[in-house]
């Protein structure tokens, strides 16, 4: 069974915006060499989520976890992502696909962000 983790981000016009997400991808990949870790975007950047999934399936991946790299569960996560996922499931009916909560909703991520807020005051 080949597994993948897709970090799903919004996307932006400035290519430099993707740098922290690329670092996150690279660090996650280093911790999980047996899992393919990739980035996909909602808009403005490539690859978009459906194209990223097509490439993973073509590479033999049959189990994918999509992790929204959003601070909260807004419209993109609650409305847009489920619509995109339905299209992906229709295109790849044998693919095991799990969507997890937005990264910013995780208590450990919240704790790390709180620590950064406190440290920012010196």
UniProtKB/TrEMBL annotation:
CDD domains, sorted: CbiX_SirB_N
GO molecular function, one term: metal ion binding
Source organism superkingdom: Bacteria
Keywords: Lyase, Metal-binding
Protein name, as recorded: Sirohydrochlorin cobaltochelatase
